[in-house]
User: What shape does this take?
Amino acid sequence: MPPNDPFYLSPGAMIPPVVFRRIVMAISGLAALPVLAALPRTTETSAVSDLHPDSSAVVATVERFHSALAAGDTTAVLALLASDVVILESGDVETRQEYRAHHLLADVEFARTVASVRSPLQATVQGDAAWVTGTSTTKGTFKGRTIDSSGAELMVLSRAKTKWTIRAIHWSSRTRSPGPGHDR
Assistant: This one.
């Protein structure tokens, strides 16, 4: 990228807090994906990476979130979410309080009932900000309904001292269709 590009950061540069806040705010409008893609990637990981010392901690935070959902540990799930987290799913935007009240328990029930295979996570760390992407395939039955879907996930995290916290989650899924490409 040319240095006059407004999204250019030199390797090793940190994202200023005001820019990080804009990224998180943009996610609520789904406009952040091109911004995130334009930032240089310092780390990509499949659970653990030697390229960036923080990538393992970032991935471990996301994995703890999913493990807590599958275990039904709502206290642990909520402890990993920032107080101002934004959760985007099914065309809706929820705060931490709304997620807790509206569908955290349904997510726990779904995670405990329906088998899901997640791809290796890809993590990018820029100073005290990070984002993690992954995909999944989910098959089973939930409340009498057959589930066969592909999903994608983006989580944005920030670090305060040594703790990584989830600041934004975007989940999307689609029904898998039979035929060529069904197992992708």
Notes: The helical segments are 17-27, 32-38, 55-71, 74-80, 96-102, 104-113. The radius of gyration is 17 Å.
